[in-house]
Amino acid sequence: MIKKLLIANRGEIAVRIIRTCKELGIETIVAYSEADKDSLSLRFADKSVCIGPANSKESYLNSRNIITAAALEGCEAIHPGVGFLAENPGFAREVEEAGIIFIGPKAEVIELLGDKVKAKQTAIKNKIPVIPGTKDPVDDEDQAVEQAKEIGFPIIIKAAAGGGGKGMRIVRNEKELKGILKIASHEAETAFSDGRVYLEKYLENPRHVEVQILADEKGNVVHLGERDCSVQQNHQKLIEESPSSGVTPEMRKAMGEDAVRLFKNLGYRGAGTIEFLVQDKNYYFMEVNARVQVEHPVSECISGVDIIKEQILTCSGDALNIEQKDISLHGYAIECRINAKTPGEVTLYLPPGGFNVRVDSFLYSGCKVSPFYDALLAKVIVFGDNRLEGIKRMQRALDEFILEGVETNISLQKSILAHPLFRKGKFGTDVLSHIIKEEKN
Questions:
Q1: Domain 4-103 has what CATH class?
Q2: Given Cys at both, which of 187, 370, 381, 412 links 358, Cβ 3.0 to 4.6 Å?
Q3: What is the C-alpha separation between 276 and 341, in angstroms, rounded?
């Protein structure tokens, strides 16, 4: 068992990791930037170490400072959290070379899955349905036009090395393609230092569904059902729920089996997610997130499994504490991401509570929301016996959420939950654009 662990991240995920570590009896060291010197995670951790200034390149993305801090503090492991270096194979490799456990998959697995083209090829080898598209990156405009014609418009250009909407462009005809290809490649180069892009058939208004898995180094893999992440703004998730109203029992079974098979063959360890696009009762592989996801509490609610706990233990060499037959998925869970629209000081913070309501956050009255990092302030997660009960409970929770001093998206979340399109459960990834358009009219 690990005795001391360094958390190379910030915000709510750092607080979340600390809580599980305390229950496991693991001492925690939080690595923080100068901008986060008053963060809640520093109060909860056993110790904290400043790793650099506010600029993330000099702190949370500074692998040398992070590893040095871990070594000096005698930490046996580093947890990368979400974002920053969580899916950086170079960082994972440096951590292991320093004789420290990386709480995540092996570097070579992250490297494979981080390349979207190679990941897609791996999915094909494992007999998982994929979206029609190019097998290799494209850099020649004439070649791209020919391949796009073969795939059939509309198509989507995607960055081979990235995610989060960077380097992503929808193209509906041949005339648009040449100019947009260069723009997408430049954006990918800027965001990921890798300008390679590839083409895929663009699915109109699909559902975005992902399957949560856990794996150990002994070849054991389990899945915790699916999460529906279709409600998005600029390719960023806003609401996640489980189970998905767009997934049939047969599809759920098949997706789970595909996920388990893929991760077994990868020799994966820890927590991970396989993402699918679902349309017309068919599902297609999109990508793998080789880390814990922001929305992992949704799966924890319906399964009763502490994903962070299992992630830490399995990456430390322990076997999974659970088998697939032990996992019983029940009820309904939903998460709303509360994002800041502006930086500033939180003058009053009173999170909601009550039966089956959970809030993961790093906020407190008087804390400052930094302009340097991600806009996520809090995650409100509720559990119910069914979807209608869960939605009503979330509406109640958001109504009593008091957060003053910083403008947030709480009102938008309320609008989504109240909209008939969302309530019916029959929607795709363009649901938010429909809601916003209706409100403007």
A1: alpha beta
A2: 381
A3: 29
Q: How far apart are CA 157 and CA 324, in angstroms?
A: 37
Give the tens place of pLDDT for each residue, 139-179.
888 899 999 999 999 999 999 887 667 788 999 998 889 78
Q: Which of 437, 421, 400, 309 is nearest to 25 (CA)?
A: 309
* Helix (H) or strand (E) segment spanning residue 298: helix 296-303
**pLDDT given at position 193:** 83
207-440: what fold? D-amino Acid Aminotransferase; Chain A, domain 1 (3.30.470)
For residue 345, the one-letter residue type is: E
Q: Does domain 132-201 have CATH number 3.30.1490.20?
A: yes
Would the CA dihedral through 259, 264, 266, 267 be positive or negative? Answer: positive
* Exposure letters 157-182 (e unless 16+ CB within 10 A, then b): bbbbbbbebbbbbebeeeebbeebbe
pLDDT digits (tens, 9 = 90+) for 359-416: 999 999 999 999 999 999 999 999 999 999 999 999 999 999 999 999 999 999 999 9
The question of whether 196 is a catalytic residue gets the answer: no
- Measure the CA angle with vertex 336, ends 331 and 340; round to 5°: 165
Task: Please pick, among 227, 291, 337, 358, the residue that the annotation labels catalytic.
Answer: 291
